[in-house]
Design a protein that fits this description.
Chain A has 14 helices and 2 strands; from the N terminus they run ααααααββαααααααα. By secondary structure, chain A is mainly α. Chain A has one domain: ABC transporter involved in vitamin B12 uptake, BtuC (Orthogonal Bundle). A two-stranded antiparallel ribbon of chain A has the order 1-2. The longest helix of chain A has 27 residues. By secondary structure, chain B is an all-alpha fold. Chain B has one domain: ABC transporter involved in vitamin B12 uptake, BtuC, CATH 1.10.3470. Helices cover 72% and strands 3% of the residues of chain B. Chain B contains 13 helices and 2 strands, in the order H-H-H-H-H-H-E-E-H-H-H-H-H-H-H. Classes of the chains: A mainly alpha (361), B mainly alpha (345).
């Protein structure tokens, strides 16, 4: 099944994965708009756009953090629980008083960071598989939440609820913040040393280590940043709901964020991808939701469609990497370059130009 | 170190490694059983033990299936939703009619195998990471369950359907009743053990350890992986039949079982990412998880705190096994088994 003719196929050249993600987003927007228009409504009505962007901000924060962790070839399944915990800590600390907002934000984020630190330490020092480590961490937090918070708790003052409800034109403030965080994240990955190390560690931890990268520290940093991002999502929950809510962990944000990251073209086994694509992936999922809602499709069918679309999209990316390059080429035939991937999105293409397709795993 | 003695030394360290990973789970299982029986001596009564087995059997079957998939380097997140879908659909179709039991059960197995085939083919031929494939399948199946039931399951299972999960061979001296679930579990366990010793099983492990090398060695990677997915789904179907029989029909049946099954397999010392692990240890892992739940009941822990304890124990057990493995590796590198990926830190 994996054979030589692959290399003879015409290749999609010149398009980075991120570009494909945004093309897919545009395609889905167009198809969605046509379908919605056929049913006599307008997908781009103000209310719909606000709804779409609001949806994407929450998942966006989590998925941005998840991208960093996945780039390091790790995984974080505890984000949903961290989000719920952070919303509760923020809301109960604020307790309706404006003066306590800063301390509440600081506490919530500090707790999130500590959880990320523990995740990172367990993964790197105790060498527990990230899947199990973060799943276990999620269970631990779940137990704490279920025991201590039977229902919504705390009271968020109006001033902080503004974070969830303020809009500048059609753009919700939370979405602007999310885009800002994404921009910082993109800068971080492409320009900072730690960002480059993340690609290196995800590409091949052993090679990175021998090149002098402190791999453990990099992975731990990614986990802390991921938990912090989930903490911010929790703050957003608190500001939207007006209280902290433990129930949000049941909404499947952990798996959905992974889906968004992968939909955004980031390679699940680390080392390739980026936050730009992830934001595209988040917008795709949010668009789907908006389209389904405006068409008032049965919520149960919605899940089915979403599952099928995620699989199909990832299959298309995989096809692309099939025709382009081996799924994972750790030791490519090209001459050794500095291990800093200058344009991570392009590594695939470069490898394809020099490597035969037959050596794919 | 390519001489014959080098290879045998390597084989020895590999066996040692497998045993070290598995030893943890057997010790842990023994420990938990001892603690439970100290707290409640009647736990060791045959009747009570058999009851425990009946309850644990579905998870053991799921663990066997999940083992096949994990050891080949993949994940199957769809099993929990598959169990749920199978039970709910069976109840819908049987609706209390005894004569419908056998055809429906056959249909369940065919449907289960098809789901596994789809999982496997999408993962292997379309190159979609199995987490995403089976996650998508999970969304599809959960959607299907809720769409079919509208939230509350309808219909009922027949008495015959529930025999396998509930009944057993009665009036056995000393023991009282040998549950069918126990016999099924043991039979499937022996079958799985033999399967892993067959050419197929060895190829499966080789594929999980190093897919590329296995490809070059001529293994049909897509075939072994796809069959692993099919086996996982078929075993999930069997688990569904036992679970439906034992616990009856609710819309929640099966929820979260995929994570519990993965936990069980990993507790059994099977390495996520493939290539290492013993199926019997995976089964013991499932028994350990169930024993743990039993212990929590025994301790009268508030049900809300159980996840915390569960999470702590899983991380601790896996960390122990991983650190132990790393230590062994460090000492065994002297014999000549430096593994590229294990030298880190």
């Amino acid at each position: 099944m994996m054979n030589a003719p692959l290399s003879l196929r015409p290749r999609h050249r010149g398009l980075s994965t991120t570009a494909i993600v945004y093309l897919a987003l545009v395609a889905i927007l167009v198809i969605g708009a046509v379908l919605v228009a056929l049913s006599g409504r307008n997908l781009f009505s103000n209310a719909n756009i606000v709804d779409l962007l609001t949806r994407s901000s929450l998942l966006g924060f989590i998925a941005i953090g998840q991208t960093l962790v996945i780039l390091c070839r790790s995984l974080d399944l505890s984000v949903g629980y961290v989000m719920a915990l952070s919303s509760l800590i923020a809301a109960t600390t604020m307790n309706g008083e404006v003066s306590r907002i800063p301390i509440a934000i600081a506490t919530a984020l500090a707790v999130a960071a500590v959880i990320g630190l523990v995740n990172g330490l367990v993964v790197t020092k105790l060498k527990v598989n990230a899947f199990i480590a973060t799943l276990g961490m999620g269970l631990i937090i779940k137990g704490y939440l279920d025991t201590n918070y039977a229902g919504p708790a705390g009271d968020v003052p109006e001033a902080f609820q503004a974070f969830g409800f303020t809009r500048i034109g059609p753009l919700p403030l939370s979405t602007i913040v999310m885009f800002a965080v994404a921009a910082v994240g993109i800068w971080f990955l492409h320009r900072s040393r730690t960002g480059h190390h993340m690609y290196a560690v995800g590409g091949d931890a052993e090679v990175a280590r021998m090149s002098g990268v402190r791999t453990d520290r990099t992975v731990i940093t990614a986990h802390i940043l991921c938990a912090l991002a989930a903490g911010v999502a929790g703050l957003l929950i608190a500001s939207r709901f007006g209280t902290g809510s433990a129930a949000v962990y049941d909404d499947g944000y952990d798996l959905e964020s992974i889906a968004a990251v992968v939909l955004g073209g980031t390679y699940l086994l680390g080392g390739r991808g980026g936050i730009g694509g992830t934001v595209g992936g988040v917008l795709i999922l949010a668009t789907l939701d908006s389209v389904f809602n405006t068409l008032s499709i049965d919520p149960f069918i919605k899940d089915v469609l979403r599952g099928v679309i995620i699989i199909a999209a990832v299959a298309i990316y995989a096809r692309r990497s099939l025709t382009g390059a081996p799924t994972r080429r750790r030791f490519s035939e090209r001459p050794p370059e500095p291990d800093i991937p200058t344009q991570p999105d392009d590594t695939r293409t470069e490898a394809a130009d020099t490597g035969p397709a037959g050596g794919r795993t | 170190m390519t001489s014959g003695s080098g290879i045998s030394a390597r084989l020895r360290t590999i066996t040692e490694r497998v045993l070290s990973g598995s030893a943890t789970v057997f010790v842990l299982l023994g420990l938990i059983v001892v603690v439970i029986s100290v707290l409640n001596p009647r736990f060791l009564d045959p009747t009570s033990l058999m009851l425990f087995i009946k309850k644990a059997a579905p998870l053991v079957l799921l663990a066997i299936g999940q083992y096949f998939v994990i050891v080949s380097g993949e994940f199957d997140l769809s099993v929990g939703s598959l169990v749920g879908a199978q039970v709910v659909i069976a109840a819908l179709l049987i609706n209390g009619v005894e004569s419908a039991t056998v055809p429906v059960i056959l249909g369940m197995f065919v449907g289960g195998a098809l789901i596994g085939l789809v999982n496997g083919l999408i993962t292997t031929l379309l190159k979609v990471p199995s987490i995403i494939t089976t996650l998508g399948m999970m969304l599809v199946l959960y959607g299907a369950i809720r769409w079919l039931t509208g939230g509350a399951p309808t219909g009922a299972l027949s008495e015959n359907f529930r025999v396998l999960g509930r009944q057993g061979i009665d009036d056995v001296p000393f023991i009282g009743q040998i549950p069918w679930a126990l016999l099924i579990m043991v039979a499937l366990g022996i079958g799985a053990g033999y399967l892993m010793r067959s050419a197929w099983g060895r190829t499966l492990i080789a594929v999980g350890d190093n897919e590329r090398a296995a490809t070059f060695a001529g293994a049909r990677v897509w075939w072994v992986k796809t069959t692993a997915f099919v086996l996982s789904s078929v075993l999930a179907t069997a688990a569904g039949i036992l679970l439906g029989g034992y616990a009856g029909v609710t819309a929640q049946v099966g929820q979260g079982l995929e994570f519990t099954a993965i936990t069980a397999v990993v507790l059994g010392g099977v390495v996520l990412g493939g290539g290492r692990g013993w199926v019997v240890a995976a089964m013991a892992g499932a028994l350990t998880v169930e024993a743990l739940f039993r212990l929590f009941t025994q301790l009268n822990l508030p049900s809300t705190i159980r996840p915390t304890a569960q999470g702590l124990i899983i991380i601790a057990a896996v960390a122990y096994a991983a650190v132990d493995r790393a230590r062994r590796q460090r000492t065994s590198t002297a014999i000549g088994t430096p593994r590229h990926s294990d030298v880190a830190s």
